[in-house]
Amino acid sequence: MPTTLTAFADVTTSDSALRRFLHGLPGVDAVGLEARAASLGTRSIKTTAKAYAIDLAISMIDLTTLEGADTPGKVRALSAKAVNPDPTDRTTPMTAAVCVYPDMVATAKAALNGADVKIASVATAFPAGRAALPVKLADTRDAVAAGADEIDMVIDRGAFLAGRYLETYELIRTIKEACVREDGSAARLKVIFETGELSTYDNIRRASWIGMLAGADFIKTSTGKVGVNATPANTLLMLEAVRDFRAQTGIQIGVKPAGGIRTTKDAIKFLVLVNETVGEDWLSNHWFRFGASSLLNDLLMQRQKLSTGRYSGPDYVTVD
Amino acid sequence: MASVFEYAPAPESRSVVDIAPSYGLFIDGEFTDAADGKVFKTVSPSSEEVLAEVAQAGAADVDRAVKAARRAFEKWSALPGSERAKYLFRIARIIQERSRELAVLETLDNGKPIRETRDADLPLVAAHFFYYAGWADKLGHAGYGADPRPLGVAGQVIPWNFPLLMLAWKIAPALAAGNTVVLKPAETTPLSALFFADICRQAGLPKGVVNIIPGYGDAGAELVAHPDVNKVAFTGSTAVGKAIARQIAGTDKKVTLELGGKGANIVFDDAPIDQAVEGIVNGIFFNQGQVCCAGSRLLVQESIHDELLDSLKRRLSTLRLGDPLDKNTDIGAINSADQLARITALAETGEAEGAERWSPACELPSSGYWFAPTLFTNVTQAHTVARDEIFGPVLSVLTFRTPDEAVAKANNSQYGLSAGIWTEKGSRILAVANQLRAGVVWANTFNKFDPTSPFGGYKESGFGREGGRHGLEGYLDV
Amino acid sequence: MSESSATRLNVFKTYKLYVGGKFPRSESGRVYEVSDSKGKWLANAPLSSRKDARDAVVAARKAFGGWSGATAYNRGQILYRIAEMLEGRREQFVREVGEAEGLSKSKAGAVVDAAIDRWVWYAGWTDKIGQIVGGANPVAGPFFNLSTPEPTGVVTVIAPQDSSFLGLVSVIAPVIATGNTVVVIASEKSPLPALSLGEVLATSDLPGGVVNILSGKAGEMGPHLASHQDVNAIDLAGADPVLAKELEIAAADNLKRVLRPQPVDDWSADPGMSRMTAFLETKTVWHPTGSLGAGGSSY
């Protein structure tokens, strides 16, 4: 445990201590939170600011394919797209990462061929997380061994909703240890809460703190597999959590909204949330990511519009 | 805020509004010069640019307008309520159609950010006309008797902080109830009322039902004193409100007064802190704090004072002050040089009395009237900044220890317009709300308005309510 | 009995003020003569001073918190108790009202009956007015929004001059029914029924200070009460036009709610609600409703 976390050492000594701590966090008023997120959504980002935001957003994408039908060909295409999003414009930044299932990590690694695009792998019986701990650990170790730079784990929402907070915390700690490679380095750990299943904002704040206390490098909204995924409000709430956590511990943690972010307009709203909630320290792909797939093409079309003055069309970006 | 993510200017287009070089008084359905030919200039507070020259009403014009309203009253009040309703629905629709134009106009003339005129003022203006339109043919069901009668001619004097919204609050219920009106907008913000006159013409409103007479306080006093005015409605300062109350003593004139405030925003230690911070900011920096119901006194439980102040200061540092027409501006210009001088003087008094002053780093434009968002800490009930209405972006921070003390301090004011409560404990909200002597109590929110929701003060914040069923009473002979 | 009563000297009553639940004399020590309608001396009444008025305001303010905070049901029971107590002392009031207003016994009886019934009417209003004039407002947003009537505070009443008892009851009962406390200046010419009412109120479970009854000159005390910064409202029912205007001007100093004098032909007519609503404030409380879950926005 980092020394700066010692102030919180007591809260994870027992289930009841952790419960007391989590339930002592300030409550969240849903209407006020959503109103603040909506208000920031009215920011008008134009011209130079828009160009900056589009490139930043592209560079923050974890370009994702998480389908049962994923094939090596699909993953290779995705990887190529991540490295070279717009073949017509080589100034386009690469995405931050590709995000695949563990069994596709090796394929992605080969396809990326050393390019500066990270490989993120979901793990821990994604998306439901309904498997025994040894399975989750094996899943994680496989992905790391295959070359994953980042692990996107899911918490056990069942345990959380049943009030077994310490179990949730311990799972993250255990997976965090499994991210360590033989050479002592470690994959960065993103912890997915599946906010749509946690349902209330109070739960999302509590889950965020469990994740941060347990050593998450990123906290992430969703799997993309349920009805409600990333929203401006739940992302704002998680940004507030990492802001407060750094203020109290000095430890900075990243945030990743995932699922449902499809347009440039949406992405820019999230960047405004970052800018005005936690500020420029989080405005890089080391600290903020978008879990997305179709978003990239919309960003590319908007990028073409800015550079050519013409509206682009789907035939002028690649479909992979 | 210096950031790697700098927002490029995003100005709303001025071309949606066409401001004429000069405007007349709107009397009996016509634009007309003042009897004595006097005019005054209205300037844009953010640039000091002259926007237009406007006829200045004097005593003779007031008389002319009241006579026109009196002539129009007989027919207007005799119209079936359903017909009056349709005129008001027409007005509401035209306001919606022209809302972008009116928002830009209001921002130019008043100095408030386009974000507010676009997202708050104009939607509420249209909603207010819609709401009261529906009452016009249902007055017998409003709880004031089977066939309540209008009063006659309403003399209405409105302030500069929400020029068109205050016009809507005054004119919509007056017309729905069957009165005719003479309305005097504030001398620093006459334009949106004059555009409203044009909307009345577009709606085909019979001449004389609405008369708009821009002018100064003297014209307002003439209007209030006019013997043929049956109803006086005023929104503005408590000092003028008292003068009006004296002026109409011994007459049959009915009066509603919406006056000053020094709203307490009470934050308990179990508050939803992030939303409370937003509510505090919205409470005092909405419309540059030029709001009668502003939460200008922050009462924070001592146990969370430091933590809350840190959050609040961090949040204030992200406020964007500047060109009101820029869609990203949070804090616009102060409405006038006079108001700026008053805010400045009161803030200096706060410092002189030993309160600790803080503002975020914030560059003020070189022309126009500007005041940086300001906090005063170490404030006690005895400080001037805790007692006097500043009507500007200045928040006084006080502490309390217990709910009883919070209530006692909140109520310790000659005003009683608004208050806020922030706590996650339901019973505490209800108990404290019950004890507060204020007409509007916002719990876990602040500065929310709606045409269905009665608004108005206790004590020296005035009397009568505007909005809702309650708002009809002031315009009916009941 | 009859022989002895023929020679027995009856006991005069010393009429005193009713302030803060007690029966003080005027602090000034002054009294004035009260006569019946034919000019026959009835009693001396305290000639209250501005200091008595001041003390009455203090008492009314002190009582406000408890009275306004009492449940509406409780206030209704106490108002009904006043009617019960009055019924028991009906004969006394019939005599006093008859003497004061020059009415026959049957006419005075009708007036007293109407006054008793008026307390019963307002007793029933205490727990209904809130639903009639308040309610939920359907605002366009995720908020629960409720308007409720609340008492204005300390109300000064200049009681009607002619209707010394029914008029008096008709102006003070609506004020206290909703939780206000009152300082009333009784009819100057005919204060005795009002002063006797104090004795009824004192035995009706009504907390001291809720009603404070002064006798004397409205023209002398009125300006002090109208300008008093701790009085919230004034009912000018019994003020003549000149005094009413003077008091309305003075009342503007702290923006008191003013109920102007209105001609009343028949105090026994249905009083309606206007005397209650004149001294009510509407408080509107907002609270977010929000969504049940973060999953779906409620707006």
TrEMBL record, chain B:
<dbReference type="InterPro" id="IPR015590">
    <property type="entry name" value="Aldehyde_DH_dom"/>
</dbReference>
<dbReference type="Pfam" id="PF00171">
    <property type="entry name" value="Aldedh"/>
</dbReference>
<dbReference type="InterPro" id="IPR016162">
    <property type="entry name" value="Ald_DH_N"/>
</dbReference>
<feature type="domain" description="Aldehyde dehydrogenase">
    <location>
        <begin position="32"/>
        <end position="477"/>
    </location>
</feature>
<dbReference type="InterPro" id="IPR016160">
    <property type="entry name" value="Ald_DH_CS_CYS"/>
</dbReference>
<keyword id="KW-0560">Oxidoreductase</keyword>
<dbReference type="GO" id="GO:0004029">
    <property type="term" value="F:aldehyde dehydrogenase (NAD+) activity"/>
</dbReference>
<dbReference type="InterPro" id="IPR016161">
    <property type="entry name" value="Ald_DH/histidinol_DH"/>
</dbReference>
<protein>
    <submittedName>
        <fullName>Aldehyde dehydrogenase (NAD+)</fullName>
        <ecNumber>1.2.1.3</ecNumber>
    </submittedName>
</protein>
<dbReference type="InterPro" id="IPR016163">
    <property type="entry name" value="Ald_DH_C"/>
</dbReference>
From TrEMBL, chain C:
<feature type="domain" description="Aldehyde dehydrogenase">
    <location>
        <begin position="27"/>
        <end position="258"/>
    </location>
</feature>
<keyword id="KW-0560">Oxidoreductase</keyword>
<dbReference type="InterPro" id="IPR016161">
    <property type="entry name" value="Ald_DH/histidinol_DH"/>
</dbReference>
<dbReference type="InterPro" id="IPR015590">
    <property type="entry name" value="Aldehyde_DH_dom"/>
</dbReference>
<dbReference type="Pfam" id="PF00171">
    <property type="entry name" value="Aldedh"/>
</dbReference>
<dbReference type="InterPro" id="IPR016162">
    <property type="entry name" value="Ald_DH_N"/>
</dbReference>
<protein>
    <submittedName>
        <fullName>Acyl-CoA reductase-like NAD-dependent aldehyde dehydrogenase</fullName>
    </submittedName>
</protein>
